[in-house]
């Protein structure tokens, strides 16, 4: 029989796991966005070598399973004398891996900016750096809110993989609770429901932000 008392009894452990998930997610979102910006600027650079490095980064980290990257950092690097705790491993791995996806979205958004806008700015004598900083990047960020939002939602869901390196985030906490109570159905049903509600709320907020930023623009959507 379905027993909700298990959830109430271990609610504190779930909350502790959620706090770890939330903090790892927040730091990783910031880190991946910054990585994405740097790689994007590399991709659109007029320097061929720098541009190729940027594209190589995107292609590399988009084609390596995330769990392999996590295992390499947590289990592989110690062979070289580099020891990183599970929490830092999670933030580092997510920032590096998701940064590649952010870079690709930002690059595409920058390339979609109308050339006439750039040419108009150049006619006023603005430098390339100033044009990107004041004109191109704000337009690209506005257009990339939804795809970036989807990436960040997926990042939050991907934190569940970090339980494989002993980080007791939400999924890790659920595994411990299920093992202690022998009630995996209730525990994982609650976990499933929690992630569903969380992603729905985040999707709604992203849609609201997108609508607000584009309220003065007519779109096809």
TrEMBL record:
Membrane topology: Multi-pass membrane protein
Protein family according to the UniProt entry: Belongs to the binding-protein-dependent transport system permease family. HisMQ subfamily.
TM annotation in the entry: 20-44, 56-75, 87-106, 148-167, 187-206
Domain of life: Bacteria
InterPro entries noted in UniProt: AA_ABC_transptr_permease_3TM, ArtM/GltK/GlnP/TcyL/YhdX-like, MetI-like, MetI-like_sf
UniProt subcellular location: Cell inner membrane; Cell membrane
Nucleotide-binding among keywords: no
Record's protein name: Amino acid ABC transporter membrane protein 1 (PAAT family)
PANTHER family noted in UniProt: L-CYSTINE TRANSPORT SYSTEM PERMEASE PROTEIN TCYL, MEMBRANE COMPONENT OF AMINO ACID ABC TRANSPORTER
Organism from which the protein derives: Vibrio diazotrophicus
Gene Ontology CC annotations of this record: ATP-binding cassette (ABC) transporter complex
CDD domains noted in UniProt: TM_PBP2
Pfam families, per database record: BPD_transp_1
GO molecular function: transmembrane transporter activity
Assigned keywords, A-Z: Amino-acid transport, Cell membrane, Membrane, Transmembrane, Transmembrane helix, Transport
Predominant localisation class: membrane
GO biological process, any: amino acid transport
């Amino acid at each position: 029989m379905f027993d909700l008392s298990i959830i109430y009894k271990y609610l504190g452990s779930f909350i502790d796991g959620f706090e770890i998930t939330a903090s790892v997610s927040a730091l990783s979102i910031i880190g991946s966005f910054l990585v994405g910006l740097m790689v994007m600027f590399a991709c659109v650079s007029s320097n061929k070598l720098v541009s190729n490095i940027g594209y190589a980064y995107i292609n590399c980290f988009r084609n390596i399973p995330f769990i392999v990257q996590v295992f390499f950092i947590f289990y592989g690097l110690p062979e070289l004398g580099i020891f990183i705790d599970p929490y830092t491993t999670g933030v580092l791995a997510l920032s590096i891996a998701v940064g590649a996806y952010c870079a690709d979205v930002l690059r595409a958004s920058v390339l979609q900016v109308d050339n006439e806008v750039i040419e108009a700015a150049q006619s006023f004598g603005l430098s390339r750096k100033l044009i990107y900083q004041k004109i191109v990047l704000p337009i690209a960020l506005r257009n990339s809110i939804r795809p970036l939002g989807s990436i960040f939602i997926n990042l939050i869901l991907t934190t569940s993989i970090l339980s494989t390196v002993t980080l007791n985030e939400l999924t890790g906490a659920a595994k411990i609770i299920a093992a202690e109570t022998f009630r995996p159905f209730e525990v994982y049903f609650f976990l499933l429901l929690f992630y569903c509600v969380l992603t729905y709320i985040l999707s709604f907020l992203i849609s609201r932000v997108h609508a607000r930023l584009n309220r003065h623009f007519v779109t096809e959507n």
